[in-house]
Predict the 3D structure of the following.
Amino acid sequence: MLQSVKTIVLCGKPLDFGVLEEIGSGMARPVADKAGMERVAAAHKVIVDRITMGLPVYGTNTGVGSMKDRLWTADDLADFNDSLVRAHHFGTGEFFAARVIRKAIAIRVNTAMRGHTGCSTELIDAFVALMERGIIPAVRRHGSMGCADIGLMGQVAAVLTGIGEAYFNGRLVPAAIALEEVGLKPFVMRPRDALAAVSVNAIAYAAAADVLREAAAAIRVLLVTGVMSSLALGASADPWRVAATLSTRGEALVGSWLYGQSGIADWPLPISIHDPLSLRMTAQVFGAVVDTLLVAAGRLVEATYLSDDNPVVLGGQVHSSGASLPLTTTLYIEAAQTAFSHMARNVLNRCILLSNGGRRNLSVNLVAPGEVATGLGPLMKLAVELYMRVQSLAVPLSAQSIVVAGGLEEEATFLPLIVERMEAQVRDLRQLAAIEAILSAQAIDLVGDQPQGVIKLAYERTRAVSPIYLKDRPLSKEIEAMQAVFTDHDLLRAFVDMAPMPEFDGFFALDK
């Protein structure tokens, strides 16, 4: 059905952002590695041998959670596996995008390829067949506390068995109908398959990969609007040169990029010996964001090949595992959320400097000479709110206490909810970038700058949507239109091509 689509072999090695993007977009479909499938089969035999001897294997011939001490007989296993999937189809809310589910299925298959999961090879084949035939399980977003996405992956596993809903040929249809249309029979879970299908963090990881890449794209746009406003404000480029030479990895990366753009433009002479902190420390703020995001994304890439199952097969034995708690990855993602707050404040401060007047003799509220107008100053109310939205969403969630199974205090990360909050942060940061671009374009026009390079491109795209501000006018639609312009991936690629930051752009596959 999809013979012309590129294939990517999943063999239990890390999946980078480029590979995940190809799979998520549908440009490539995953296939299982032959050697990896042999490891899967060997691990499954260990599970089968153990339950044949009547020995307990968690979630295979025993219950799960508070039912973990209930041992099922051989005659019960078929019903148990079937009911385990049904019991974990409880997600609610909006649906994840199809690209997230494609990535999640690939991650689940990839983590099994190392031979520690204990599931059957038939389960892997069933997952791969969904992707091959173009069936995307419809997964509602709410249903995971971030310690195995049981309520989310349960919706994927249900589709394998002909239950739930799926997207097929652009339609949302009952899973049974989608399977029938492509000639697939509902999958019958074998011992260990049901828990292996529902109790992993694959969807949280896939959604995190999606939002981290979007965050990287937003940062690249904010760097452009930041250097655009710095030009309009007459900021000194000297601190960027210092950062490029003497600072830590992220700061040096950003400092070098900023200084490089100042060399392309006809940069104004500094208007003061010491700029305000929001200008002088742009490389430090953005550098910390870049560095934090790279670290968080690096931990996520590691998670795409490491088994987070419970139990696991290790050295021919079955072991209980706590790997379903992705705390390290979550903590780094939360750190990135805090870094976003600093970036939002930095953007807000530059916007205030632009609208306050004084720098380079700019007028208060950027009112054009001779015009009777209130100007762009009122936009600061929106900018402050956007900053506060980004700030409020950075409050850590992972350490919250909860009580779940057996009335005991349990561990959780709330990674899916953290991802959802980061999505809102990215959206608000993009709107801040739109406001900064509108203000900067107005200031550039008022002082008569002739921007070059990436600043010129950003200026031209801004003016195509938001003309010079002379008389007061409603700005709501303009701001939203600018946000859409700066979200467009073609413009991002143009920014990346014109002003590359290879270490960052390449890692997040921003040029794809």
